[in-house]
Write a structure and sequence with these properties.
The structure holds two protein chains of two kinds.
Chain A (H helix, E strand, L loop, with lengths): L2 H28 L29 H36 L3 H15 L2 H12 L3 H28 L2 H8 L4 H37 L11 H9 L7 H28 L1 H5 L1
Chain B lengths: L3 E9 L4 E10 L4 E6 L5 H8 L8 E8 L2 E4 L3 H7 L4 E4 L3 H4 L6 H11 L5 H14 L18 H13 L5 E5 L7 H18 L2 E6 L2 H7 L2 E6 L2 E7 L8 H9 L14 E13 L11 E13 L3 E5 L6 H9 L6 E6 L8 E4 L13 H6 L10 H9 L16 H13 L5 E5 L7 H18 L2 E6 L2 H7 L2 E6 L2 E7 H6 L4 H9 L4 H4 L1
Helix pairs in contact in B: 4-5, 4-6, 5-6, 7-17, 12-13
Classes of the chains: A mainly alpha, B alpha/beta.
Chain lengths: ~270, ~500
């Protein structure tokens, strides 16, 4: 990861924040926003609507900006749930082969084996729809992903000689996990976090599609994609806008994550 | 007529020269040994001779091979020669074999592709070649897969594959480094026999002088990308001072003293350890492999006990049990020292792998100390004791040489003044010239602190150099134990005698 890529990503982040801060105000002034106006539906980009309008005449620029919030909060929540539970579990399971690690890993398989959608619908019936439900449903499936990845990355580290030296220095499993193993798997965790944010945005789209995620009229990138599906021949632009937004966002997050993990690695910092 | 004449080989990457003016010849029926520390350019020379230089390097120089003069970067000539006229053997045979092909297929493949033999002819010829490299007749090597045979046998198969097309030149890059000492001896003798019988030339690359001394006709010393000296063995006095110095280094007098067990540290009594081999059927008894069988051992303060044996003989199992890293065994071990953190410390084989890559050296050294500040005087003192430059304390493991990293690992081990220091192959990953420095350091530390040391090694010469007592382990049993001098004078067990015979004696090169 070159610093230049990281700079581009940082610039992108600044643009995202700036757009997010400015556009609502501007769109408020221009009195467009998320209002439905069927007389201008599916209009191409113009002076009034910089990115055109969708099938209900809503301004696409406003949609993509406002949609960022709901998509991202769902994805972030899901990642936080997944990482905060899955990461310690994976680390714990990797420390040594025991009943504990077997239980953790088999529970993983159990969650993997369940159809995600059925679980999501179950959560939906329990808690109703909304950002929280979607985040919880996706987050639940993030747990085994994190646990498995961290387990896989941490397992070979536990067999290294410096871990044995640490044991001889009187350190217990917990201390070794925190001081030796966790910093060495941090880059893997970061990479997984950026991947899961991207996947979370897509998953949110799927859940919104079946009515579990964000409910209309709140916009979200996922639902924008889904709604654009049927119009792909008439107005491909509608699919392109949220698609590009997601791609840019995931790129930004991955690059920053990579750069941060490089900073933590003395070997690559030199090279 | 020489097989190969290499003249003025220069290799450089964008910024600096890597090889400068490397020239040598290899005669028919001759083994030219190439020795040097890691990073001196040995392997790059070998790759140049096989036309396998990395593309980003610029190479100059010429080569006479098969009465044909060519430039070193003439890929077309090399493509013709490689495999046919120039055979290659690498260090790690496991990594060079395709795990899904039998050994026979590996040998038959070049015969079919380049030798233009039919499939059945190639297979017959492959069987013949495999026999020639000395596979035991009761094994049908042809149908075995690489993982089904031992490391030594894999290396034999590798040699067979390289020899299948009857090359004139064999390039062997550290062919025995991964092998046990008795097997190393066998492989070296096999190479010597093939040279004598078939008149091919071998370029034998090694960082282990004793291996070369056993079979090479001439030795070239490489340092910083240059050939410093080439001399015939046995060395004549005054012809090659640097090589002589190297040979002398492996020839230092033994440091062992008469055994006087004044103060015992730990006593292991009748230790048995077995590993499950997996179950066959639900109700049948689990099969087990016995790793340690009735092992009893006493270690004394200020004494270095060498534990030698081949891989799989149970050396590391003893180390783990003594270090308290393994609790699943039968038998007892009794300590005569109070229980405390750092009572046992270990130094491992791979120095960089035994230091956390993300930690500065000083932090690693301080690890056994409970809450030590980075500026703690004990860290500096430990670094001084092992001869580690204080400026290195802020560096990271990858910035250190192997010898420096091993000194850091030793500093970490002695910072808590352990009663017992277990050294698990502490010098086998190091360059020849560094080994003796580390051995001398260990001997000093023993004298300074009166630490009991258990020196685990497969290198009998190193054991003889510093250990006071010798314990020989064979298949989990102690077959020989006693004061070094008396064991050397009269080895009781056949295994000990075999190891002593196989131990590459440097004296042979000097007489």
């Amino acid at each position: 990861m070159t610093p230049r890529t990281a700079w581009i990503a940082a610039l992108l982040l600044a643009v995202f924040i700036a757009v997010y801060a400015v556009v609502p105000t501007v769109s408020e002034i221009l009195n467009r926003g998320l209002a439905i106006s069927l007389d201008v539906r599916l209009s191409p980009p113009s002076h009034n609507h910089w990115l055109g309008t969708d099938q209900l005449g809503r301004d696409s620029l406003s949609m993509v900006v406002f949609g960022c919030l709901s998509s991202l909060s769902v994805a972030l929540m899901a990642v936080i749930i997944g990482a905060s539970i899955g990461l310690p579990l994976g680390l714990l399971a990797s420390a040594r082969t025991s009943i504990m690690s077997t239980v953790i890993l088999r529970l993983n398989d159990f969650i993997f084996a369940f159809p995600a959608l059925v679980t999501a619908i179950l959560i939906h019936t329990l808690f109703g729809s909304g950002i929280l439900t979607a985040g919880l449903a996706i987050g639940l499936f993030n747990i085994p992903v994190f646990a498995r990845t961290i387990y896989g990355a941490a397992r070979p580290i536990w067999t290294k000689d410096f871990i044995r030296a640490a044991r001889l220095a009187g350190k217990g499993n917990l201390t070794i996990a925190m001081s030796h193993v966790l910093p060495l798997v941090a880059s893997v965790a970061l990479a997984q976090i950026s991947t899961q944010i991207g996947l979370g945005i897509l998953a949110e789209a799927g859940l919104s599609y079946v009515g579990i995620g964000v409910t209309p009229p709140t916009p979200s990138w996922g639902r924008m994609l889904n709604e654009a599906q049927t119009l792909i021949a008439i107005a491909p632009r509608l699919a392109l806008i949220p698609g590009v937004a997601i791609a840019l966002f995931v790129f930004m997050f991955t690059s920053l994550g990579d750069y941060l993990s490089d900073l933590a690695d003395p070997k690559r910092r030199d090279g | 007529m020489s097989i190969l004449t290499l003249s003025h080989l220069c290799v450089e990457d964008a910024s600096r020269p890597i090889l400068t003016d490397v020239s040598f010849t290899i005669e028919p029926g001759e083994i030219l040994g190439l020795i040097g520390a890691s990073g001196s350019g040995k392997s790059l020379t070998a790759r140049a001779l096989a036309g396998l230089l990395p593309k980003n390097l610029k190479a100059k120089g010429s080569l006479v091979f098969k009465d044909h003069t060519t430039s070193i970067d003439d890929q077309r000539s090399f493509a013709q020669w490689r495999g046919q006229d120039i055979g290659l053997i690498f260090q790690d045979p496991a990594g060079t074999f395709n795990p899904l092909m039998t050994l026979g297929d590996h040998v038959a493949e070049p015969l079919q592709l380049c030798g233009a033999l039919s499939k059945s002819d190639a297979r017959d010829e492959a069987r013949h070649v495999l026999n020639r490299v000395g596979f035991p007749t009761d094994i049908d090597a042809f149908d075995r897969y690489p993982h089904e045979v031992s490391g030594g046998q894999r290396q034999r198969a590798m040699i067979a594959a390289a020899l299948a097309l009857k090359p004139r030149l064999l390039i062997a890059d550290e062919p025995t480094t991964a092998l046990d000492v008795t097997i190393e001896h066998d492989i070296l003798m096999l190479l010597r026999r093939l040279v004598n019988e078939e008149g091919l030339g071998i370029l034998l690359i090694s960082h282990d002088l004793s291996a070369l001394a056993q079979i090479a006709d001439r030795v070239a010393l490489m340092r910083d990308g240059q050939i410093r000296e080439i001399a015939a063995l046995p060395l004549k006095t005054g012809t090659a001072p640097e090589l002589e110095q190297l040979f002398a280094m492996g020839h230092k007098p033994s440091l062992h003293r008469a055994v006087s067990p004044d103060h015992s540290i730990v006593h292991m009594q009748a230790i048995r350890k077995s590993y499950p081999l997996g179950t066959k059927g639900l109700l049948r008894k689990r099969e087990e492999r016995l790793a340690l069988d009735d092992v009893s051992l006493t270690l004394n303060a200020g004494e270095i006990t060498a534990l030698v044996g081949e891989s799989g003989s149970g050396k590391s199992s003893i180390a783990r049990i003594l270090a308290g890293l393994d609790h699943a065994y039968r038998g007892t071990h009794t300590w005569f020292e109070p229980e405390r953190i750092g009572r046992v410390q270990m130094v491992f084989q791979d120095p960089t792998g035994s230091l956390n890559p993300r930690w500065p050296i000083g932090k690693s050294i301080a690890e056994p100390l409970a809450n030590a500040a980075p500026e703690d005087n004990r860290i500096k003192q430990a670094a001084n004791e092992v001869g580690l430059d204080l400026s290195l304390l802020d560096r990271f493991p990858h910035q250190l040489s192997g010898g420096q990293a091993q000194r850091a690992a030793i500093a970490r081990a002695i910072i808590v003044r352990p009663s017992l220091l277990i050294l698990d192959e502490p010098i086998s990953a190091l360059d020849f010239e560094i080994r003796d420095q580390i051995l001398s350091l260990l001997d000093q530390l023993r004298a300074m602190h009166g630490i009991a040391m258990l020196f685990i090694t497969h290198d009998l010469n190193a054991a003889i150099r510093i250990a006071d007592r010798l314990v020989v382990l064979d298949q989990g049993r102690i077959v020989e134990a006693g004061a070094m001098a008396s064991v050397l004078a009269a080895p009781a067990h056949a295994k000990t005698r075999a190891m002593l015979n196989a131990a590459p004696a440097l004296t042979r090169a000097r007489t």
